[in-house]
Structures are given as C-alpha cells and as structure tokens.
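Figure 2 data, in text form.
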Amino acid sequence: MHHMSRGRRVLVLAICCTSLLIVSLDNTVLNVALPAIRRDLNASVSGMQWTIDAYTLVLASLLMFAGSTGDRIGRRKVFVWGLVLFTAGSLLCSLAPSLDWLIAFRMIQAVGGSMLNPVAMSIITNTFTDPKERARAIGIWGAVVGISMAAGPLIGGLLVDSVGWRSIFWVNLPVGLLALLLTLRYIPESRSEHPRRPDPVGQLLIVALLGSVTYAIIEAPARGWASPAILGCSLTAVAALVGLLVYEARRAEPLIDPRFFRSAPFSGATVIAVGAFASLSGFLFLNTLYLQEVRGLDALDAGLWMLPMATFAFLCAPVSGRLVGSKGPRLPLLIAGVTMAASGVLFAAFSAEGNTRLMFAGYVLFGIGFGLVNAPITNTAVSGMPRAQAGVAAAVASTSRQTGGALGVAVIGAVLAAGTAGGADFATAARPAWWIITGLGLVTLVVGVATTGPRARATAARTARELDPDPPGAPEPVGAPPHA
C-alpha cells in the first residue's frame, strides 16, 4: 500500500474528497430548498427540522461503527457499499411522494454517508504515510468542506429555482456513480492489523441516546414538555447515557473508550465540535427561513446572501491548518470563539437582520470563525493519541460534529417554533435563538483556552501512556477529518 506512485496517491485523495463533497453538500444544498419542500409537501417547522436531522442523526449514530467495520472487513469494501447506498438513497429522495417518505429515504442516504467519511479518512491516513504529505492531504480534505459550504447554497438555489427541489438529489447520482467506478478501479483494499471487536450494545445505546434527545427537543414545542412521549424520550436518553458509561467502561474494546476523555484536549475538542456545529446548523436554519419566508427572496438570492459567510469559511480553513501546524490550536480557537460570538451578538442585540450592512458583517464574522474552528478540533482530538487509536479519536470528533449539527437544528428550530406559536413575528421569535448561538461562540472561546495550555497537554500525554503503555516511538500528531 505504501509503494503507490505520487499520481496514484493524489487520485486516491481525489476520490475520497469526492465522497466528502457529496455528503457535506447534501446538507448545505438542502437548507436552501427547505421553504420549497415545506410548500410542496405541507411541512411544519418540525417537519423541516426532521428533513435535516433524520440524516444528521443516522450519520452521527453510525460513524464510529462504520469506521471500525471498515478496519475489520476492508475499507474499500465498506466505502463501495457506502457509495451504493448513498446514491440509491439520493435517487429515492428525489422521488419521495410525501414528507414522511422523504425523511425515511434521507435515513437510507445517511447510512451510506456514514460509511464514506470515516472510511475515506482511514484510506487517506494509510495512503499518505509521510507526516508532511499527510498534513497537506488533510488540509485539502478540509478545504473541500469549505467548498461545499460555499457552493451548497448557490447550487441549491440555482436548482430549486430552475428545476425544483427534487433536483438537488439528482446531483449526487452522476458524482456517486463516477466515484464508485474510480474506487473499484484505483483504490486498493486495506484493513487494520488489529481491528476492534464489534460492540453492538454500545452501538444501540448511542442510537437510543442521540435519537431520544433529538426527538424530545424537536417535538416538545408542539406536544408539550410534560407529554408522555417527551417524558419517555427524556427517560430513555438518561437510561442510555448511564448504560453507555457503565457498559463501555467494562469492555476491553469499547466503541468509545471512556479513558479518552481523561485527556483535556480531547474532551475540549469534543465539546467545541458539538458547539461549533450546533451554531452552524442553527445559523443556516434561521437564515434560510428568514431570507426566503420573511424577506421573500427566491432560493438563489438566498444562496447569494450566504456567500460572504461561505467564502470566508473557505478562505480561513487552510490558514487555520497552517496556524495549528506552526503555533498550535490555541490562537485559531480564540479568534473563532470571538468572531462567532460577535456574529451572534449582532443579530441578538442589534437586530442585524434589519440592516444590510450589519447583516453582511454578521455573515463575514461567522464565516471567519467557522473556517478557523475546524482544523484545531481535529488536530486537538487526535494529537498525542497513540497511532492505533487515531482513527477512533477522529471518528469521535466527526461524531461530535454531526451530533452538534443535529442538536443545533433541533434546539434552534424548537426555540423558533415556540416563539412563533406564541404569536411573535420571526425576528422576535428568533432573538433567543441568536443568544444561544452567541453562547456557543463563547463556549468555543472558553473551552479553547482551558484545554490547550501546558497543563492540558500533560493530561493528553498521560492518557496516551494509559492507552498504549509500550509505544514503539513517541506518538505523532495525526490529522483527521475537519468535518465528516
């Protein structure tokens, strides 16, 4: 595997990045199409939340499982099946006769998506063995997320306005098929020398935990917090969490090793990933609805409005990677926390949506912050971990991102739904949601400072020694996906 020509390695990277592109485009493109889907399929706010969250939740629940399955039975095999399922799911979504069917088909898409990103990351990590080359490859992987953020709203807007919302799922078909043919032809099969044993109980508990929490948050505004369904979900979530903590601590090879969290940088990266992606998904959800339903813009104009945010996210992602490489993760996390919180304050305290200049400034600030936050999350989660655990650590970071994304849409949508149900206009109903986004920016700032100092790094070194008592050499920081 290590004797590939440079051209072949670049091709493998390109194929892996293609898979990441369609999976991350899928969410940004869908956001712009929400109002059109809402009109066509008679959806409520919670219906729209489910269109996004059914996908994100399944993705978050299965990432760890898919990554370890790839290590066990063959990464290429799992990757190929992921492409097949994702492409088939996209085709089904484009044909969905009702909202319920659309949500069900989004879940099929997500099962495929969960098999692509962590596995692609393992393929990249195993293809680029030179640390410098690997860092560059991971930088390119990060830029792809920026591209999908920038292109998503525009491609989505163009397609929704010209062909209709169903066409956003057609885009995946040619790309998925091309990636499939190239994978079968050029990507070699690889497995882990010491794959982890399957952990079905841990897997079920994770699904129960994430699913019940999200269901409770999305459905509570309509059903009431004291309704039997919501109380049942809350109890399920608590039971699943306790079960996870007790069960995983006793297993020799748990799905998520609780000892990982003794490393302050690792725990910090997990918290920041959840917070940053919750604020991103909440930000996109609020703005899409505001621009199209309150300002009355069509999907393409709404996409163009989002462009400043996406452009700055795209430009700042590689800068952040270089900063992390030369100065460590602290500086980019500080700037990210400050700019994302400042963006939230502009909307929460200064009603930026009513003033074009302020709104533009809010978008730019958020884009800068989001662009900077990705590389440090990944690097911090994985650096100092023993090489054998790097894949699992990267998968936890990716899972945290998707979990954050699902919770952001659930919480921000619930706050908005509760406000509008009380008769408030959109701007007033959205104000508490903007304060939540501001708070999440501050979390990035505070946790970033707390978990990147010398004392925090010492806990990472101690954790690495516990996990791998006799390392062959000093553990090297291994990069991982900025967004899977």
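Caption note: The radius of gyration is 21 Å.
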